[in-house]
Amino acid sequence: MEDKNQGSASKPTKGITRRSFIRGAGLSTAGSVLLTSNALAFDYKEQATVGKEFGPDAITIKMKVNGIVKSLSVEPRTTLASALRDHLELTGTKVVCDRGSCSACTVYVDGKPVNSCMMSAFDVGEKEVTTIEGIAKNGELHPVQQAFIDHDASQCGYCTPGMVMSCVHLVENNANPDLEDVKNATRGNLCRCGTYPHVFKATLAASKKTI
Q1: What angle, 0 to 180 degrees and rounded to 10, lies between the N-to-C axes of helices 160-171 and 196-210?
Q2: What is residue 40's three-state secondary structure?
């Protein structure tokens, strides 16, 4: 019996790779931002020591965080969230679900919200990271941060930094958001305490003072 598959060349499989999936999952749904498949591309050889293999040992990389270039030694498996919290002691970024489901770990990479628990620290490259610590300017809270206080928009506080980051991104990119805009901007942010109504009021109030 003739084998139908005999002599047929195997075709390369096209689709989503594990790495591209993780990159996509790292996008914060709270920000409604899409990055191209090459947007997080990073030349590992550029930061690795010449002649040294990439991994499994830690490698010293540079990362611009809140306007300051930092040097840190991280293993290839290190997420951006871990690099910020464990290596740079920027613990304002919270890790709750650690699987890109709650957006508590939202930070900006070149101004775009991403879930830092799902992004490799090595994929940052020359892009700038902004954390919740970088939102306040000259000792003054961002209007969204102040509005969260004024409108009691946080309870346990675990989701608060990520929620603030999503809302700040909204008001700084939308001069006159309405309630639906705020709901859409925070749709990826999970608040187990159910403070959404206060978050909505705070964001709408802050939008009038931002732009």
Answers
A1: 40
A2: coil
Q: Are the CB atoms for 127 and 118 separated by under 8 Å?
A: no
Contacts 24+ apart (CB under 8 A), 181-188: 184/32, 185/30, 185/31, 185/32, 186/30, 187/29, 187/30, 188/28, 188/29, 188/30, 188/31, 188/102, 188/103
Q: Classify strands 68-74 and 106-109 as parallel, antiparallel or unpaired.
A: unpaired
Quickly count: other Cβ atoms within 10 Å of residue 118's Cβ: 23
Inter-residue contact 105 to 96 (CB < 8 Å): yes
Nearest alpha carbon to residue 166 among 100, 80, 106: 106
Helix or strand or coil: residue 146?
helix
**For residue 24, how many other CB atoms are within 10 A of its CB?**
15
Whether the pTM exceeds 0.90: the reply is no
Q: Kindly give the pairing relationship between strand 128-130 and strand 59-65.
A: parallel
Q: Over its length of 211 residues, how does the chain's per-residue pLDDT go in tens digits?
A: 545 444 444 444 455 554 554 555 555 544 433 333 333 333 434 444 444 456 788 999 999 999 999 999 999 999 999 999 999 999 999 999 999 999 999 999 999 999 999 999 999 999 999 999 999 999 999 999 999 999 999 999 999 999 999 999 999 999 899 999 999 999 999 999 999 999 999 999 999 876 4
